[in-house]
Amino acid sequence: MGKNGNSTVECRYFISNLKGDIELISRAVRGHWSIESMHWHLNVTFREDANTTIDKMAVPNLNIIRKWSLSMLKIAGASKHKLSMRKNVT
Question: Is there a contact between 25 and 18 (Cβ–Cβ < 8 Å)?
Answer without folding.
Answer: yes
